[in-house]
Each structure stands twice: as C-alpha cells, then as structure tokens.
Amino acid sequence: MTGEFHINGIDIFDTYGVFVTKEGFNDLLSYPALKKVDTNDWPEEDGLEADLTLPVLEGRDFVISFGFVGSEADFNGFCALLEKEVYADAVILGRSYRLRLLSYSGITQVNGNLHSFSVRFADDYPLYGYEYMVPMSGLGIGGQYELDGVDFGAYGIRVVDDHISEDLGRPDIKEALKRNIDTIGGRIYDGGAQVKRKGRDMTLSCYMKAASLPYLWRNYDAFLHDWVRADMSRADITQRGLRALTVSASGRQMQCYYRSSQVKDFVPADGEAWILFSVTFTIVADKL
Fold it and tell me: What is the pTM of this model?
C-alpha cells in the first residue's frame, strides 16, 4: 500500500491511511476510447470508408475505489488534498496522471472498522507525459495475432477466450436499395452484380504478463500507442490511423482501427505482474 498512490508528492496511505481496494485500479487502467471517427458506408463498396487522418484519444471519467480503517485514517484530510487545486499530479503504481476531481460516493462500512468509498476523477490528458518505448517481453508468448506485423507476443500478450480466429466466419452482406411495389409480385433489388460485405466491430480479450511492473507498463502503453499512432508515410492521409491485424495461423488480415478497451483484472506484484483487458476495434476491410 505504501508507495502505490502519490498525489502532489504525498503518499496517501502513509499520510492519510487511505488505500486502493483490490479491484479499485481497473477503471483507472482501462485505455481511453478513440474519439469518434467519421465513416461512410457506401452500398457499392466493401467494408467502411473511415477518415483516420489524425486519430486521437478521448478524455475520460473513471472511478477509483478506496478503503480505510476507521481510527487510523484521516478521510477529511484526504478529501482536502484532492480539493486543494483543480488538477492534481498523481503517480499511481509508477504511472503519471493529471487528475481532476469530480465527485465522491458515500462511505460504506465493510466489516468492523474497515470502510470503503469511491472517487470519480476526470482524465483530460490521456497518456500524460508518455514517451514511446518499443515493447520488450522475452516471455516466449506469441503466434496468435500480429499488429502491423508485430507479434502480440512482443508485448507479452496472449489472447484468451480466443473465439475470433475460429468465429471470424464471413462478414455480413450489405443490402442495397429494395423496392416493394404493390402492383408487382415480390421485390425489386438494385444490388448490382457483385456482393459487398459490411464492416463490423470485434473484441479481443488479452492477457498481458511481464517480469516486473515497469515492464508491464512499458508494453501496455506501447500496445495502445501502436494501435492509435498516425503512420505519416501513408500516401492516403485518411488511412494514417489504419492498422493491419493478422491471424497468424491462417494469414487472414483485417484492416481496422482501435475503438475502446476495458480492464477486467490486474495483479501488480513484481515477478508476476499481469493485466487482463479487452480491446474493441472496427474492421473496415477483411481480406478473406
């Protein structure tokens, strides 16, 4: 607990007796979503046309769950620290954030003197202070998926509940204009001569492991960066944020872009630091 959470240089456990509960970090650690991407869904074209000239992340609100032992805590002092300025510089598990306080929940008695409460924060600066470092795993994980030619194993990721590689199947078919005229039997379909396929959203559930917490953060942040970076070498500027996701076993490749993420579980212990999270992406073109 000591050293986990600092606000403006103050250790909240040592100073106020306040700590983060077991699952209290999950909302904080989830990647921010991508800001809305403008798309066109032309009936005469496969997939989607997406403008990814400059993909950028949304600001976000999130909740952290805290606990304290009644007689040993200074709850009001902790709240005063949060309310001292509009923004607070926080270092949480070795990661830097610039947080803005939004609201508190009520205090709940969990068991005896143990109490819990939650605080809602705003993160207006996604990837605050981040400088890219290439992923470094060395755990020998891989062989499932590649992102722009980089095996997920380079990030220490194994895809769990891997239904996508089996259930990719065939994309749904677009329907063109249909006319149903009262005086003519059946319907008139203006679909042209070729079948066109829809774009779609899909989700991967990822288990990332590292030998230490700093390496976990290095790979975790690099994974998000590599999903949303703008490839300035692309001739078509609207495709700068487009990624190639490849199923390693079959070679099937999808052109897609990142949408959102959610952390499901997290263990920060050195030697066995890991995080379980989902990544949702939009497929704009699927090379069957």
Answer: 0.89
Residues paired with 98 in a beta bridge: 89
User: Domains (ranges, CATH) in the chain?
Assistant: 5-287 (2.40.30.200)
| Whole-angstrom distance, CA of residue 195 vs CA of residue 81 | 61
Q: Which residue from 208, 11, 15 is spatially nearest to 93, judged by alpha carbons?
A: 11
Q: What is the pLDDT of residues 32-56, one digit of tens each?
A: 999 999 999 888 788 889 999 999 9
Sign of CA dihedral 48, 54, 55, 57: negative
Q: What is the DSSP string of 61-120?
A: EEEEEEEEEGGG--HHHHHHHHTSSSEEEEEETTEEEEEEEEEEPPPEEEETTEEEEEEE
Number of separate helices (H) and strands (E) present in the chain: 5, 19
Compute the distance between CA of residue 258 and CA of residue 207 in angstroms, rounded to an integer: 17
The HSE-up count of residue 84 (CA atoms within 13 Å, CB side) is 11
Give me the residues of the chain with pLDDT under 70, please.
1-2, 162-169, 191-193, 270, 288
d(CA 110, CA 132): 41
The answer to whether the beta carbons of residues 213 and 3 sit under 8 Å apart is no
Assess contact for 12 and 6: CB atoms under 8 A.
yes
Using DSSP bridges, classify how beta strands 188-189 and 178-179 pair: parallel, antiparallel or unpaired.
antiparallel
Enumerate the β-bridge partners of residue 88.
99
274's tokens: 């890991």
Strand residue runs (E) in 167-223:
178-179, 188-189, 200-210
pLDDT, tens only, 124-161: 999 888 999 999 987 777 778 999 999 999 999 999 87
